[in-house]
Amino acid sequence: MEQDALRPAIAWLATSPEPALRRAVQREFFGGPWTNGPVTGGTIVSSLLSGQEPDGSFGVHPYRKWTGAHWRLVSLVDLGITEEDAPSLLQAAGTVLDWLHSDQHRSQIRSIDGLTRRCASQEGNALYVCSRLGMAEDPRVTQLAHDLLTWQWPDGGWNCDVSASGRRSSFHETLPAAKGLYEFWKASGDQAARTGAGRAAELFLEHGLFKSRSTGRTIDPLWVKLRYPEYWHYGILPALLLMARMGLTGDPRAGEALNILRKKMLPDGGWPVEGVWWRPATAAGRADVTDWGRTGPNQFVTLSALRILAAGTALPAGVTG
Q1: Residues 189, 165: Cα–Cα separation, whole Å
Q2: Which of 47, 150, 237, 311 would give a disulfide with 244, using CB separation of 3.0 to 4.6 Å?
Q3: What are the Cα distances from residue 179, in Å, to 59, 125, 148, 157?
């Protein structure tokens, strides 16, 4: 996409009421340092940090949807929050690692017909978070990467379905695992992790990120809808973001998904949210602790879209931070 076309969206995010978003714009699209103070006081970030207890938890199981530490940490890291911004994130990550390495959790790992059936999104998201929080040298984090590589299926992905034939992995489970391995490679230099992430990326690209290889049809209509947060769900938005980070958006097989994303840009800049996985805090179950926006232009979807389409390009002229 031409740089000028991105100018309105970048300018919109540069005036966001959420400091973390403004900092992301400053760092990622202007290439300059952030000098405007703490970023943890915005509505979104402060909600995600709220309620943390002395042991690092948030008073519920780390995997409690969507209020447990597991989910909050992914969202915080997505927004660029680091251990320097909020040192208590390391404690929260510790509770996630304790859960994933517990005897109770690991006793549920099953191998059938020589393939490990594992919800790899759990280890994958945790590896993504910990690698971004400077914890890559922690033996518990290294073990996550080793486990994911050991559990990877022949087609390059992962699957938790005990009845699956073994012919095809789950895209839902594979995307977080690939994200985690790629970030672990960046943080540690572990080449095996980079290779594992590359195998998963190839699986996605073989399908044009959203299409059946046999019919060419869209595998799931929800995959081409723009949603945030994705939690563990697959879609072209988080898949393209991973491709951008891995330098793969120039692969012709990503072209159709990129064109879908470009066409969804709104006339005045920005991208819409097209459905949500979360419920408001007042909901009876599976509620999120914050409001990500349920309709219309969405700053968080737009940030992901810009990260994809502006990858490798210079700042549009005339935009100021």
Answers
A1: 34
A2: 311
A3: 27, 7, 11, 12
Task: Answer whether 235's CB lies under 8 Å from 226's CB.
Answer: yes
DSSP-assigned letter for residue 211: B
pLDDT tens sequence across 178-188: 999 999 999 99
Here the tokens at position 140 are 């518990």
Sequence ranges of the domains in the chain: 3-309
Quick check: helix, strand or coil at residue 299? helix
What does pLDDT average to over the chain? Answer: 94
Q: How far is CA 113 from CA 4, 161, 199, in A?
A: 53, 12, 21
Please tell me the CATH code under which domain 3-309 is placed: 1.50.10
Question: Which ranges constitute the DSSP H helices of the chain?
Answer: 3-14, 19-29, 43-49, 69-78, 88-100, 103-106, 120-132, 139-151, 171-188, 191-206, 236-245, 255-263, 299-309
d(C-alpha 103, C-alpha 106), whole Å? 5
